[in-house]
Design goal:
It contains six helices and five strands. The chain is α/β, with parallel strands linked by helices. α1 links the parallel β1 and β2.
């Protein structure tokens, strides 16, 4: 039995990788784990306008905390729905929401769950976009210790 990990960020592009995981899981009687990573540190910096968190008012901190909690709740709802849909199709599926840098958490999840293959979509950035944003898929390939199937846009 093969265990597939499919990182999802809520985009149609990321969901495209599910098709490939489903094909393989069906053929090899595999299981699918869905993971969504909420990058809390990045969100807090973005919400603070890039300013230092030092001296941030308790009211603003509460607002940031609410925004992060809202994103986590949305991620749980999204993965619950995706899991239910896949289970209706006959797949064995589990999910989890993690907090932290996406590539790091995807690799940790794969290790903790003894995953055989990570199936990930790339957003297809190149040039400056790739330089500025980096590539989660590239980092997963570099840091992961399992095969990675990268689905291009």
């Amino acid at each position: 039995m093969q265990r597939y990990l499919v990182p999802l960020d809520g985009s149609d592009l990321a969901e495209h990788s599910l098709r490939f995981a489903k094909e393989r899981a069906r053929r090899l009687d595999g299981t699918i784990t869905l993971v969504r990573v909420v990058d809390v540190a990045r969100r807090l910096v973005a919400m603070s306008g890039g300013a230092s968190m030092e001296g941030t008012s308790p009211l603003m901190m509460h607002g940031m905390e609410d925004a992060v909690n809202s994103e986590i709740a949305e991620a749980k709802s999204y993965l619950t729905k995706m899991t239910e849909d896949l289970q209706k199709e006959g797949y064995e599926v589990s999910w989890e929401v993690r907090e932290g840098p996406p590539a790091t958490e995807i690799v940790k999840c794969a290790k903790e769950r003894d995953i055989d293959v990570i199936v990930i979509s790339t957003h297809g950035r190149s040039g400056l976009g790739r330089l500025v944003f980096g590539s989660v898929a590239e980092q997963v390939i570099r840091d992961g210790r399992v095969p990675v199937l990268v689905i291009n846009p």
